[in-house]
Amino acid sequence: MAEKTALFESYLSCHVCSETFRDPVSLSCNHSFCSSCLQKFWEQTKNKNCPTCKRKSSKDHPPVNFTLKELADSFAGRQKTGSSEAEKVEKKVEVVCSKHPEEPRLFCKDEGRAVCPVCEFSLHQNHKVVPIEQAVSDLKEQLKCDLKSLQDKRNKYKQVEETYSEMREHTKKQLLSTERQIRAEFYKLQQFLKEEEESRLAALREEEEQKRKTISREMKRIQEQISSLSDSISAVEEELQKHNVSFLSTYKDTQTRARAQSSLSDPQLLSGALTDVAKHLGNLSFRVWEKMKEKLHFSPVILDPNTAASWIYVSDDLTSVRCGDTKQQLPDNPERNTKYPAVLGSEGFSSGKHSWEVEVGDHPDWSVGLAKESVDRKGECDPLPEYGIWCLWHGDGKYFNAVGQTVKVKKSLQRIRVQLDYNRGEISFYNPEDTTQICTHRDTFTEKLPIFQCWRVW
């Protein structure tokens, strides 16, 4: 520790007076000296050379090296800590001139330092010199502005931190909710498949039962025929054992019976007696899928709940919205609409033709259409093209087109059909009940257009 202190003291010592720096200045050759020591040396030598390497200085009055000054003052202060001369040291630190130990009263704004009003005043005649109290006041005001800027910046970071915290908690809720809905959807599919499996297994068992009964019935009939034929065969064999007179008296009946049974048609196996495996297994998965399609609902419009305002409640299947009576606690993520009760579609259109319908019912105030992906979701934004929104909207009992002009309809609209031709820059609105066109707007689309829906809370 002593060696380190000695090395540090050597680094902070002036090579002229061999004491700790006072107002040190650094020359271009990187050698440093006390400002007063350097000036004395130059006055004595009649040149502006470095006292150490003799290299000529490029400046007559090199500025104070404040970094080195702070180190030197701090080091000198530690060396004197606890001594009875502490107040004297503190006073010496405030002195800017060794010849004139008065407290500094002037400040040079050009060099950014206090100057001696006696020996240095003439050196600063072309500089902006002000009373030190004024300089301190001005600099403190500047520092207060810097402090305010830092505090504002910190508050912004804290707000973002708070929003991230809210987003983290919200994602946990989203995880649980989405997981629950996924399980519910798959449970429905599993129930359907289970019921379909039981139904088809039941059909298979029913067919097997019918085929088994048919085969059993045919086998019983065949067995009866076999028994009858066996009796006839035994009778004929018995008749053949009789003597002449007895045989002649009875053979006629036996022969008639035998010929009658012989004339019967040969037995035939029934077709379709086996299980129709092809009917039960053929394209089984495809036929089940076709049946499943009849029970499933497809929507061309999927809403993004992360864009929904706090007053907007999006349905579990993400296809409809309603206005809530209370404001939800939702994070202010960048995608969310916070100024108006609006929600955007999960996907946008950047080419091609598209069509979808929106059920507005008897809601008194709504906007339906498209918006730019870059639409302002936080500030003032009217449903007009200059704000990046093209829609049909309703308010105060009237209907307005994309540019805010009143449009007339035959009767109150319950559903709206929206048709987009992105490549032609055309968006149209129709009444799907009678396919009449309500209005059309043409523009130039240059970015992706998500579906836009806005509902006023009443």
Q: What layout of secondary structure does this protein have?
A:
Elements: H1 2-11, E1 24-26, E2 32-34, H2 35-45, H3 66-80, H4 86-94, E3 106-108, E4 113-115, E5 129-131, H5 132-239, H6 244-262, H7 277-281, H8 284-295, E6 312-314, E7 321-323, E8 342-349, E9 353-359, E10 366-371, E11 389-395, E12 398-400, E13 406-407, E14 415-421, E15 426-431, E16 436-442, E17 449-455
Antiparallel strand pairs: 1-2, 3-4, 3-5, 6-7, 8-17, 9-14, 10-11, 10-17, 11-12, 12-13, 14-15, 15-16
Helix pairs in contact: 3-4, 5-6
Family: Belongs to the TRIM/RBCC family.
Main location: cytoplasm
Protein name: Tripartite motif containing 35-12
Structure, explained:
This protein has 458 residues and is an alpha+beta fold. It folds into three domains: 76 residues, Herpes Virus-1; 110 residues; 153 residues, Sandwich (Jelly Rolls). It is elongated and about 180 Å long. About 3% of the residues have low confidence.
Bin the helical content: 40-55%
At the first level of CATH, the class of the largest domain is Mainly Beta
What is the subunit arrangement here?
A: single chain
The best one-word shape is elongated
CATH fourth-tier homologous superfamily of the largest domain: SPRY domain
Count of spatially separate domains: 3
The structural class is alpha+beta
Largest sheet: 6 strands, antiparallel
Which runs of at least 5 residues are low in confidence (pLDDT < 50)?
78-93
CATH topology of the largest domain: Jelly Rolls
Examine the secondary-structure arrangement and name the CATH architecture of the largest domain: Sandwich
